[in-house]
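Incident log, support desk, overnight shift.

02:14 A customer reports that sequence design results differ from what the structure should imply. Their input is reproduced verbatim below. On-call engineer (initials T.W.) acknowledged and began investigating.
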């Protein structure tokens, strides 16, 4: 099978690998669609401490079961499935209180074991979700990032409240859609790229550049302000601006991992009783809800995403990192001819 292998900063190679054999409790999937995640772009640039070369990345994916090991439940060869790539141990103290997303022994497909930037991938059957055969695999591959967004929205947004989002990349756009399905009233999205702001506006948001953010905030929310801001970028400027724009007593949900360290106005945070909450991945319930929203047709990838082949993926990694890519999301189709 063909596999796209990360070999070091800005180094990807297309290689021939043996198709894996399933262990007990595992399935071998023929990968139909796998999204390129922003965290994988950081890995590609050499900025990820947890992605070690050589590595087959890819954790947002949908595929068809090609082969099954023993003890896999009622799954069958030919089933179309979405995979939760987060594998928790189920036994540590974090898992026992229902926080498998911060399991002390967690593994992630595409980080700690080979991922789905390949024609085939081995996955735990317990992490698979069967979806209808007719469901678009490219849409289905958004389940993992959508679950990230659902988790973030739940951590901060109250029913029918206003919301401000920093970033109109894939996570920002999916956070917008998740928030609207969960009853958000008015949503303001901030980004530097006009194309991305256009995508957000088309999905129902008010939009502004960082330079316009304070004026847009005042115009949309008025004296009432906004109690929740979700930062899907995670750099010095977005973190500091979020602190300045959220209401006293408000909540900032930090999702973006763009920068490890930031110098922030912490005295303002203390004096205004601002809560800053880290949001990492999702719970099993979040993931299942993401699958349900996609299955019900409540989330769209139209206009803001595109697809490419495994062979074309290397050039697309470069385009996404140098800012020349037109689309916010690029989804790789390793198994040509099947969606």
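02:41 Re-run completed on a clean worker. Output:
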């Amino acid at each position: 099978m063909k596999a796209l292998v990360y070999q070091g900063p800005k180094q990807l190679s297309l290689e021939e690998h043996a198709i894996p054999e399933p262990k007990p409790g595992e399935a071998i999937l023929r990968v139909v669609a796998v999204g390129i995640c922003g965290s994988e772009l950081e890995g590609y640039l050499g900025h990820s401490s947890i992605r070690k070369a050589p590595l087959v990345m890819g954790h947002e994916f949908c595929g068809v079961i090609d082969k099954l090991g023993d003890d896999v439940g009622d799954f069958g060869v030919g089933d179309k499935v979405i995979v939760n790539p987060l594998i928790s141990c189920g036994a540590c103290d974090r898992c026992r209180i229902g926080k498998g997303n911060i399991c002390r022994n967690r593994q992630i497909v595409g980080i700690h074991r080979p991922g789905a930037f390949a024609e085939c991938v081995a996955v735990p059957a317990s992490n698979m979700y069967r979806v209808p055969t007719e469901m678009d695999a490219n849409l289905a591959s958004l389940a993992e990032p959508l679950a990230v967004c659902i988790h973030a929205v739940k951590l901060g947004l109250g029913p029918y409240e206003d919301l401000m989002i920093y970033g109109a990349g894939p996570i920002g756009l999916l956070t917008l859609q998740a928030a609207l399905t969960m009853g958000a009233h008015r949503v303001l999205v901030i980004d530097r790229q006009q194309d991305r702001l256009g995508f957000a506006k088309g999905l129902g948001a008010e939009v502004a550049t960082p330079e316009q953010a304070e004026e847009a905030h005042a115009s949309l929310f008025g004296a009432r302000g906004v109690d929740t801001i979700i930062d899907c970028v995670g750099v010095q400027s977005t973190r500091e601006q979020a602190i300045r724009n959220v209401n006293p007593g408000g909540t900032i949900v930090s999702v973006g991992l763009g920068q490890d360290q930031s110098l922030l106005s912490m005295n303002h945070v203390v004096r205004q009783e601002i809560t800053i909450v880290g949001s990492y991945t999702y719970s099993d319930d979040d993931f299942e809800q993401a699958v349900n929203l996609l299955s019900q047709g409540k989330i769209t990838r139209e206009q803001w995403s595109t697809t490419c082949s495994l062979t074309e993926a290397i050039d697309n990694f470069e385009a996404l990192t140098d800012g020349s890519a037109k689309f916010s999301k690029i989804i790789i189709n390793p198994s040509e001819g099947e969606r």
